Amino acid sequence: MRVLRAPGFATLLLGQSVNAIGNWVAIIAIWGFAAFRFDAGAGDLALLFVALSVPGALLGPLLGVPIDRLGPRRTLILANALGFLDALALTQAQSYEAVIVLALPLGLIEALGSASLDALPPRLVDDDDLVSANALLGGAQDLAIVVGPVVAAAVNLRWGLAGAFLADALTYLAGMAAAWPLRVESVAGGVRSTWVELREGLSLVRRTPGLRWTLGITGTTFLLWGLFGVLEPLYVRDVLQESETVFALLQTVFGVGLVGAGIALANIGERVARPRYVAIATIASGATAALYLGTSSLPVAYFGVFLWGVDVAFFFVPAKTLLQRYAPTSAHGRVLSLNQTLEPMAGLGMAPVAAVLVGAVGIQLLGVLGGLAAAVAGTVALRRVALLGPLPAPTPVDPTAGSTRDAIALGGPAPG
Q1: Which domain holds residue 286?
Q2: FRET label pair with 260: which of 70, 101, 311, 323, CA 20 to 30 Å apart?
Q3: pLDDT tens digits along 284-302
Q4: Are 371 and 287 contacting, i.e. CB atoms less than 8 angstroms apart?
């Protein structure tokens, strides 16, 4: 595959694959095993999601400024270093309350690392290879969903929660090692006020219909994920009446769907990087999520969560590619960090709502209604695709990220 020959890309892919496995081990430990071990209820899970979401939701948009100033390589290294320290701290958690407190920085660290990683492909590969690069990096994250829960179950069985967090800490070092040798960035232009640069990024989004549309449909999809983040452990425990092992296996099956779809996307490439396919994927994601939580049959649940994984991959990779193309390279940090901020914002808003509604509506009905709402939102977005106009013309790889087109797109003057 041609994209693997781009300098530094294969090393980045390998390092992020290892790092993502460790991250998913920690996610399963925090989200699932801790909930089972400490007998967490809907309110406890909602509080956890609020704690994970608040730092990223409040400060996430600011993270794009250092990414654009310093370059995504440096900020990716920084995110991995901070993740290593926080994972070490989590090894000392002895209660669910301690898990929540020590997990507070993770939302911000994840937002910084993910936005930095998202800003790298346009600087490493040609535009024709951008979908493939995004699909492969996404597939590395998705493969972790397949491998991570299995590793998490084995580590938890042998060493408990502390072992899971220690494994996560070690894999952050792999992510740091992969980013270190990259040579992709230099600071573009002079350093101005953080608030000025942040306002420029927000103004760019406001003025660009494609960015507004893509961030809007992405935020809607993240609301569904926020709802299911609260519902899934309760669904497995109280509706299916299964153990934390089945919870981990369901996430593995979800990951199999993601990985398979990611491989397909890497080969399909450019044809799916269109707004209409993102909207269709949102519709399908809502429908399959409703199928997943709408059943009391474990085999049907496995089938539903597999289809949901396929749909999520066909949504996420094209949507990310659209953001990279609608925004100039020098604004990728701000635009993509805003995209990363939408997920914790959605979790922050949805978690307490889900905790309240689950008692009144029930786990399954609430999941079905959430999936149907996402499908309706995707239908509305599909009807608005015609208003977006053509995609911007592709630009060659530019590690300096300081072109004239970028300056004009951000509202600055053209050189005289």
Answers
A1: 2-182+192-388
A2: 323
A3: 989 998 999 999 999 999 9
A4: yes
Which of these, 120, 63, 65, 22, lies nearest to 320 by C-alpha position?
Answer: 120
Does residue 260 fall inside a structural domain?
A: yes
Only one residue has tokens 């942040």, namely 198
Mean pLDDT of the chain: 82
**pLDDT band at 271, cuts 50/70/90?**
confident
For residue 407, being part of any structural domain is answered with: no
Domain tally for the chain?
1
Q: Which residue has the tokens 């993509």?
A: 336
| pLDDT above 80: residue 158 | no
Average pLDDT over residues 33-45: 67
Q: Quick one: 399 exposed, middle or buried, by C-beta within 10 A (0-12, 13-18, 19+)?
A: middle
CATH of the domain at 270: 1.20.1250.20
Work out the angle at residue 134's Cα, subtended by the Cα atoms of residues 321 and 349, and round it to the nearest 5 degrees: 65
Q: Is 59 left (phi over 0), alpha (psi -120 to 50) or beta?
A: alpha
Supply the pTM of this predicted model: 0.79
Long-range pairs for 403-410 at CB < 8 Å and ≥24 separation?
403/328, 403/329, 403/330, 405/328, 406/188, 406/328, 406/329, 406/330, 406/331, 407/189, 407/330, 409/204, 409/327, 409/328, 409/331, 410/200, 410/201, 410/204, 410/328, 410/330, 410/331
Nearest to 286 by CA among 235, 347, 217, 344: 217
Indicate whether 305 belongs to any domain: yes
Max Cα distance, the chain (Å): 69
Residue type for 291, please?
Answer: L
Cα separation values, 329 from 182, 191, 335, 400, Å:
17, 16, 10, 9
Reading phi first (left if > 0) and then psi (alpha if -120 to 50, else beta), residue 252 is in: alpha
